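Please, structure for the following, as tokens.
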Amino acid sequence: MIAGLFETHLKVADLKRSEHFYGEVLGLELAHRDETRPITFYWLGGRGEAMLGLWEEAPENIQRQHFAFRSTVPEVLRAPAWLRERGLTPRNFLNDGTDQPMVFAWTPAIAIYFTDPDGHSLEFIAMLGGGPRPELGVISLEEWQSKL
């Protein structure tokens, strides 16, 4: 029955600001802007693949959320520089002040994080080859590669 996740929604305080962030800064393709309600939809991964809906709400109604954008390993490795070029601050899972993507060995996948204007935690993540190694925890790519 479940083939994947098609749609997710975020509450945002300023729809125009979020449209700029998701459409212009991140480069998502506009799917639909509802002129009767404060909501905008963006395609994720191309038309018909998945959607992100942004709903404008009063700031006190916004709870910070987290979701991850599926990516490729080369794109995740390039993401820190790409994010900085757009005025965003990349951070790793450990939030230790560095911006090198980290490997979740239990998956295995590599990821990097950043935030949107409302403080939602966003992530670029890509699956790595090889089997899961949960005993390794969260490690650098170099560590991961040395353990293969």
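The longest strand covers residues 50-56. The helical segments are 15-25, 73-85, 141-147.
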